[in-house]
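anyone seen this seq b4? input:
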Amino acid sequence: MTLRIGPPAGIRGLLLSGPGLMLLGMLMFALNDAMGKWLVASYGLGQVILLRSVAAVVILVPFLWKDGWTTLRTVERPRLQAARVFFSTLEIFCFYYAVMSMPLADVMTYWLAAPIYVAALSPLLLGEKVGWRRWSAIAVGFVGVVITLEPSSAMFTAPALISILGTGAFAFMLLSGRSLRNTPDKVLVFFQISGAGLVGLAMAPFDWAPLGSPGALVMLCLLGIVAMGAHILVNRALKTSDAATVAPLQYTLLIWAVVFGFLLFDEVPRLTMVIGATLIVGSGLFIFFREQQLKRRDRVLPAVPE
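predicted toks r here
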């Protein structure tokens, strides 16, 4: 009898696992962000977002066709859906405006603070209870944001303020997602992409730049395709593995932002950014794991704020 011993899992198996899909999704999000930073340096903001949205919708349509168009007509809580579209559109424009003049890693540090804002606002907007441990983590996260801003007159520059506004809009997107649990992910993504595309369409005639070559059009459309691919990978990762396993991997986005920023734009991370990012990531991870711990406890005990 011959005993064959092989590797427990190949590269394909790793990539198709929940953590593998999440890591690949974060890489694609970082690639999307780096491409966006490069494109907005040469093309109008409205133009970039319009073509990005058109390409993403083209990719998304077959999935919506398969599910049936009634999912778009019978949505829950239309007013909240409209508010989510507004804030998601605001978030996209803020992000691309910020990366026009700020290092990619700095911008991503601000955006990764959004879960901290969610934890701070959830008692007010969702009626959730937050105890002293999570409030302490929220305070640490805010300190990290302030350190990243470098308290000085520079913290009041337009890009820095736009970044804070964008992360606030992103936090509202996350909060609204908790209240729209019955809406399919594809429908939520379709509405937010379409909203951004309509605003981009209104802006494009005023800042349209000649494409110059077919390659430029391909790159602009590829931006939307990469973004859609990233959304699909992350959604699939969350369905394949439990959130406690894959959600913390979102912070690898910051690593890729540093790598792409250095390789593509010669950006060297500032010490204050590294310190602030460490505090933000640490507090975000604590809040996440604390919420997971309380969810497990609530299955057998009454909810107690901690």
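Residues 60 and 204 are 22 Å apart (CA to CA). The first helix runs from residue 11 to 16. kinda curious what u guys think
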